[in-house]
Fold this protein.
Amino acid sequence: MSDQDQSQNFRGGQGQVVDPETFRDTVGTMDNTGKRKWVFPKMPNGVYTNYRTIVAIVLLILFFIIPFIKINGNPLILINILDRKFFLFGQPFFPQDFFILALGAITSLVFIILFTVAFGRIFCGWICPQTIFMEMVFRKIEYWIEGDRNKQMKLDRQKWDTEKIWKRGLKWSIYIIISLIVTHFMFMYIVGYQEVVRIMKEGPLANSTNFLVMVLFTAAFYFVFAWFREQVCTLVCPYGRLQGVLIDKQTINVYYDFKRGENRAKWKKGEDRKAAGKGDCIDCNQCVVVCPTGIDIRDGQQLECINCTACIDACDEVMVKVGFPKGLIRYATEDEIEQEKPFKFTTRMKAYALVLLAMIGFLVFLLQDRGIMEAKFIKPAGSTYFVRDGRISNSYNYTLLNKSNKDIKLSVKVISPSHGEVSMDGSQFIIVKRDQITKGTISISFPEKEIALSKQNIEIAVYNEKGEKLDEYKTYFEGPFKLAF
Ligand code: SF4
Ligand code: SF4
């Protein structure tokens, strides 16, 4: 059976060819009864595949080494949702910085929108972890064990003999091991590598909950990459669903040049195709059989297309063989194909870029203005003042958050009104460890005559050893009720 004959020869969809008029009504990997059509993509090969492999290797290396990289003793990236502790580029962030993180997330979203408007789904094909793990790790193992498309299809049809049991068993075992490794590294991004190593050393019995979570995540990874596969992109991922509203005729995407390609017709050696009214597409179906989402790019832009470039490489190879110029399938805009208009930076793109620049500017300002210390002095609920030796005292619960990479020795002073005295259980300083929150209680007193109101605003500040003010906090001070005449 040739590749062409097998172009739509998916599991459960024998020989079905999608009607060009109705292909948008259905998902490429399901038959009319809703049953899964298993995709056996041919191994891609070519310039874009090589570049994508390099990008994938770099990203995979980064994924596996980032948990071990530290800046000033802090992890490069740590997203500890459980303990509400976050590190980005070695900088600690706390729940108190949530608005900065939220703004950072919104800025990233605007960036993705802008990028998608201009460059389509480049993210999906080149950077998305789903594509990288699926196409560059799990699929490669599949090719290595089961062979290319035709061999995989043959093995799939084959009864469960020794060869099939051995090959599938080996593949699934390796998939489980990789899923386990990926899960462990994912957890390093959440709790840090030291914690993961500790849990591993102590064993599953000593950490039954962690062990169960690891097993569940490993099973989820295995399920996604062994079975669910391209359906993450075609059925689940919200980013794919957004394409319809984000891309337009000026967006760069993987396109089939239908003007050049049609009328498609089989290759006949020595034929003058132009004179015969035939286009450059020789209807070899190589672009279809190579597609990991099981679509035919010649039907036009489809949300299933993850811009993986496999069809570009496949078609270029064919074009070289038949002596036509490369690029029948290429990165282009719809306007470029239909009207031969070059890529243009549209008003919509400019507007998004302006919004993005403003948000980045605001984010940078917030990060610079963030300071290294956050101090809060809150009166305990139900507490009241007390009077001793001509002074009125109030107690305050303090929360001191050190966002820097150094321990800080703090002194606390009342800066308004004057004559306020701070008492800290006989100590003059509070030591707040790096990346830590320190809590405690202090007492503040004023001479009786200074407190004219039963509730008076005061301002408290914290200073480092060099006498530099690191933060200040406004609160109130309670005194005896006085009648005003
Ligand atoms: S149509 Fe081409 S670029 Fe799109 S997913 Fe299929 S092979 Fe990849
Ligand atoms: S690979 Fe190129 S020539 Fe072959 S069917 Fe696809 S578009 Fe046509």
